[in-house]
Amino acid sequence: MKILVPVKRVVDANIKVTVKSDNSGVDIANVKMSINPFDEIAVEAAVRLKESGVATEVIAVSCGVTQCQETLRTALAIGADRAILVESNDELQPLAVAKLLKALIDKEQPQLVILGKQAIDDDSNQTGQMLAALANLPQATYASKITVAGGRATVAREVDGGSETLEMSLPAVITTDLRLNEPRYVTLPNIMKAKKKPLETVRPDTLGVDVMPRLKTLKVTEPPKRRAGVKVSDVRTLVDKLRNEAKVL
Asked: In Å, what is the CA distance from 117 to each residue of 6, 103, 125, 127, 177?
């Protein structure tokens, strides 16, 4: 069984981002970039399925600039077998990424696609669902446990009312939640091995995909700074402030 795992290059989760002076976006110049944490969980899930004998090959995929090769090398160091970079300098919105992944599904014919539920840079939470719709595949989102056997996948997920378990036939699309696993620490020997694993580069036009943006970002601003708290003398004053200032009652 072949598993396809899309991974995205994002600003490291420990970095405090700043907005560009012209409010056109987030400034990523000279900023540490890393693999999207949810995608790292997806890679770990795929590698564990391979280690358990369920899968035979794990393919990591990234869409974006040349530097995304570093992100793919991280996925290879975790345990992916090979990588594909869809190289593009254009802004790739969720729909464009979903179309590119659909083209790769047609080419690679994986039995399972596992990807993070969202990227921490834009929090769109759209690519997995769009991909399932474009490829006409069953999907399970926010997976906290994945079991694959007999040509079917069983996925446990948390919902507002508690939890639910879904069963679906393969091929399928699954998006991962934080509770699914804790990715392994990447060791130096595995990092060295990753440099020798195959990494293929393709262009969107060779896949026959139009990646023109459908959405336009008008302005990006930082959230307003929190005002300092105040102390109140008694409960009556607190209730009065909540009613007249916070407007929450």
From this structure: 11, 20, 6, 8, 6
State how far the Cα of 44 lies from the Cα of 176, in Å rounded to an integer. Answer: 10
Contact predicate 98/158, CB 8 Å = no
Reduce the secondary structure of 3-58 to three states and give it as a string: EEEECCEEECCCCCCEECCCCCCEECCCCCEEECHHHHHHHHHHHHHHHCCCCCEE
CA-to-CA dists, residue 240 to 227, 235, 249, angstroms: 18, 9, 10
Distance CA 187, CA 78 (A): 9
Buried residues in 8-20 as b, exposed as e (16+ CB within 10 A):
bbbbeeeeeeeee
Site of tokens 């290879």: 76
Both tokens assigned to 216: 């336009």
What span, in angstroms and rounded, lies between the C-alpha atoms of 113 and 117? 12
Q: How do residues 108-140 score in pLDDT, each as one tens digit?
A: 999 999 999 999 888 889 999 999 999 999 999
> pLDDT tens-digit profile of 22-49?
888 788 888 888 999 999 999 999 999 9
Say what the pLDDT of residue 148 is: 94
Domains in the chain, CATH or no CATH each: 2-221 (3.40.50.620)
Cβ-contact 75, 37 below 8 angstroms: no
- Structure confidence by residue, pLDDT tens digits, 71-110: 999 999 999 999 999 999 888 999 999 999 999 999 999 9
Q: Chain-centre distance of CA 13, in angstroms?
A: 13
For residue 93, give the amino acid letter. Q
Burial 82-104 (b: 16+ CB within 10 A, else e): bbbbbbbeeebbbbbbbbbbbbb
